[in-house]
Write a structure and sequence with these properties.
By secondary structure, this protein is mainly α. The protein has nine helices and five strands. Helix 5 crosses helix 6 and helix 6 (about 105-120) packs parallel to helix 9 (about 170-190).
Length: about 200
């Protein structure tokens, strides 16, 4: 709390104590997502600093144990959240479903990839990124996002059998290829973990 007090001189002690207890940050009440995917899709960004601003503004809303949103000034909360992400060294995401890999859904890239871009965009350097797979082994496996991206590519977009089967699905197949290609671009833009070769 002393560190917060030194940087937030205008916040009363009870507010600082409450701020120090926040562990859950998310989108504001009534909204959804991290904003990064929308920015990437709309080409509404130029560099990591832009992605950092988007993610922090979208997901920098703190919630306490009572489920209520923070009542501190928004600028205070966003600044504190940005500092927390900048200091993160590791990000871990567990696979949500046996049917989906890293390229199947765009929500993971917005948060995990977005966090990596925030750290770089705020001058914090790089972040180690890990993906937990509890579906393919009894004990589960943890791989780097770079390794998981390679596996995801090998089992879908670069897999001739997958591609041939997907082509038979008409519009749904074209949508699957398009979605995975879009998610691959998003992972590349945010994490810089996609091999170019």
């Amino acid at each position: 709390m002393a560190k917060l007090k030194a940087t937030l001189k205008d916040v009363a002690d009870d507010g600082l104590k409450r701020l120090a207890s926040y562990r859950c940050f998310s989108a504001s009440n009534g909204s959804y997502g991290a904003g990064v995917g929308l920015a990437l899709d709309a080409s509404a960004w130029e560099d990591d600093a832009d992605l950092a601003e988007i993610l922090v503004n979208w997901t920098g809303h703190a919630y306490g144990a009572d489920g209520k949103a923070a009542t501190l000034p928004a600028a205070t909360m966003l600044s504190e959240y940005a500092g927390l992400v900048k200091r993160m060294d590791v990000s871990y995401q567990r696979a949500a479903s046996a049917e989906g890999d890293l390229l199947a859904y765009g929500c993971h890239v917005g948060t995990q990839g977005g966090s990596a871009a925030v750290k770089r965009g705020l001058g914090g350097g790089s972040m180690r990124l890990y993906w937990g797979d509890t579906q393919t082994a009894v004990e589960g496996e943890v791989r780097s996002v770079k390794e998981e991206l390679s596996l995801s590519l090998a089992t879908s977009l670069l897999n001739t059998d997958w591609f041939a089967e997907t082509k038979t699905q008409g519009y749904a197949g074209a949508n699957a290829v398009s979605g995975r290609t879009n998610h691959l671009f998003a992972w590349s833009a945010t994490t810089r973990q996609v091999d170019k070769g």
